[in-house]
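Slide 14.
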Amino acid sequence: MFTTKRIPFAVVLPFAWRSVLLFLAYSIGICSLYTFAGWTFLAIPFVPVATIGTAVAFYVGFKNNSSYDRLWEARRIWGSLVNASRSWSVMVLDYITNHDAPDPLPANELHQIHHELIYRHLAYITALRVQLRQKPVWTQHRDPAHDMIDRIAEFRQCSLDKELSRFMSKAEVEAIIKHPNPATILLRQQSAQLADLRASGHLSDFYHVDLTRMLAEFYNQ
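Slide 15: predicted structure.
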């Protein structure tokens, strides 16, 4: 879905130029035959045109409402992910501490744990975005005009491994991209690290349940 205040003509042209030229030539031909060749029998009453126009108006109205509903649903879900992500970061920083740990960690190691959990979550959001924009198998052999969408700047994206390399090490990225659903694997890794922190005493049982509930929220969204 492409949403913006103004849709540039350069975006519409690759999809519509064949139809525009076809109907332009057809209309010019009909008008020329009616005007210059005297084929007046080509004229049709206005009533069927108005009837068809009314039906098309209803159809376009339903399609617009359906598109808006899908846009609003996507905006609501993404907004939920944004808010939950902010909550996740705050909870990671405040819940994972040395307060009740039998073996306190140095400040730099604790900071590294916070860094891993937050950056792995950013990797999860990135993987989710890339997965949602992948082309289904049945759309990879369509009319070449549909491939023009890849030239729109808003839809350009790098490969998943390059996107994830901003948040994870090369070894972690290579292990993640082997799975058919990288976003789910990243959440699974988050859960495993939380379990280890709970076992080591750096995360209390109550806080562990709270953070696990956040992971369930990401799954639901």
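Speaker note: Residues 79-220 form one domain.
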